[in-house]
Amino acid sequence: MRRRGDRCEPQRSGGSAFARMFKNVGWGLGSRGFNSAASIAYLALAARTLGPESFGGFVLILTYGQMIANLVQFQSWKGVIRYGALHVAAGRQDRLERLFGFTATLDFGSAFAGALIAAVSVPLIAPLFDWTLEQQTSAALFGAVLLLTTGATATGMLRLFNRFDLVAYAEAIGPIVRLGGSIVAWLVGANVKSFLIIWASAAIAQALAQWIAAVFVNRTRIAFGRLHFKQAVEENERVWRFMLQTNVSNSVGMFWMQLGTLAVGAVAGAADAGAFRLAQRLSKGIVRPMRPVTMALYPELSRLVAEDDHAQLRTVVLRLTILAGALAFLVVLVTGIAGREILGLLAGERFEFAYAFLFLLSIATAIDLAGFALEPLQDAHGRSWIVLRARLVAAAAYIVLLAILLPWLGAQGAAIAAIICSLLIFVQLALATAAVLRRTGGVSIIAEPDPAEPVGTSLAPKRARDRLD
Questions:
Q1: I want to staple 279 with a disulfide (CB 3.0 to 4.6 A). Which of 285, 358, 415, 455 is the partner?
Q2: How far apart are CA 351 and CA 51, in angstroms?
Q3: First CA to last CA across the chain, in angstroms?
Q4: Going by C-beta distance under 8 Å and a sequence separation of 6 or more, which residues neighbour residue 86?
């Protein structure tokens, strides 16, 4: 980041959107490649150390904490990029600092509320999993740690200013701590509580690294206080709705990973829940290195929209969608051929029974991968309600499918439900994206109206309005 007077500008590599994006992707791929390999390794170590039943108990506590965190935490990094790109383009450093304060306040406010919810809810769900009092205490404490170690605003600030190098370094801290701790735990034959402590320590270390990188290394100022908070709401049009919609959308997006695991645990037992979660992680791990492309794509699409460069916008989305489709096919092929061997090599022969889960969930993952460029395109145009609507439809279908398929087919039924819901989301977002690209011209874009918007308004960014001068 560099400053000119009261202006704050992102570091640019020069050249086209593709050049800047692929530079950021390079950092992201290195980071996510390491993180993906580390995550598979430490999960495999946990599975080998604990065995199917204890590993399932660990997974249920872990999933409970993650589910509460995803329900209450805002996707603040999206708000930072969506509105921050406009303030940067307009040279409004003061508004940028107030935006950072606004999103950080939301992060920590929701974290404290979520920690309370996690503690109160444990006794209500404990009978479903036959949790002891000690397990209930562990679940409540672990959920609180996950919630209070949020770094969403910090990572958004770094991505906004093209500091993907710092994002990569900070995001490596958590996997390093988990991997090192898991190796020690495996050597000494640790229990579930030890692994929970390792995961909690990793969350704390990573959050500290993200905030240090954003505030001190990147020298970013943040404006806190009630007055600044109120000004930020006034300066960033529809920011509350955007934040709420992206939060709900993300929560629903994680629905089948978290609710599915807990549902399998309640119906089929802890061992199947652990195997199901292991299969989910492996299927996601195969394509996890592609996640940096999405992270780099979203801020670049936001800039293209803010600059009215819709011709390049179309090119970026179409090319990346074609590439993603080819990779999605490869994911299913590899998992179908070598899935059983992958499970046996990583988690041991005791977990080879999860092969059917892994293959089915890899199909759902492949569908998600094929459409990975569709969500950031909608968010970049301020059309987060499109993504939310797609995910809500799929979530409703998932609940119905779980109720029908889980008692009948067990964990395989939950995996089949995930495939159907991933397909539902893909079709809805593909149709919405096609409509946007058809209406994209060389100067402006006309978005489909939000049902909540007055007639004659649009969620599509326009120079005069969205730069908010």
A1: 358
A2: 9
A3: 21
A4: 306, 461, 466, 467, 468
Q: Which tens digit of pLDDT belongs to each residue from 67-117?
A: 888 888 888 888 888 888 888 887 888 888 899 999 999 989 989 998 999
| Predicted confidence (pLDDT) at residue 133 exceeds the cutoff of 60 | yes
**Per-range mean pLDDT, top range of 36-50, 193-207, 253-267:** 193-207
Q: Does 244 score more than 80 pLDDT?
A: yes
Provide the residue type at 78 as one letter.
K
Q: What single-letter amino acid sits at 380?
A: A
- Please tell me the predicted confidence (pLDDT) of residue 327: 79
Rounded to whole angstroms, the Cα distance separating 352 from 187 reads 23
83 closest CA partner among 160, 1, 6: 160
pLDDT of residue 464: 32
Sequence length of the chain is: 469
Measured over all CA atoms, what is the biggest interatomic distance in the chain, rounded to whole angstroms? 66
* 340-380 confidence digits (pLDDT tens): 888 888 888 888 888 999 999 999 988 988 887 777 777 66
Q: Give the residue with greater pLDDT, 129 vs 164.
A: 129
Q: Enter the tokens of residue 19.
A: 């050049």
3-state class of 4 per DSSP?
Answer: strand
Tokens of 303: 């800039």
pLDDT at 204 over 80: yes
Q: Which residues pair with 7 in a beta bridge?
A: 4
Question: How many other β-carbons are positioned within 10 Å of the β-carbon of residue 42?
Answer: 25
User: Contacts from 337-343 at CB under 8 Å and sequence distance 24+?
Assistant: 342/282, 343/278, 343/279, 343/282
Distance of CA 185 to the CA centre of its chain: 28
Neighbour tally for 104: CB within 10 Å: 25
Taking alpha carbons only, the member of 5, 2, 462 closest to residue 237 is: 462
Enclosing H/E stretch for 3: strand 2-4
User: Which bin fits 89, alpha (ψ -120 to 50), beta or left (φ > 0)?
Assistant: alpha
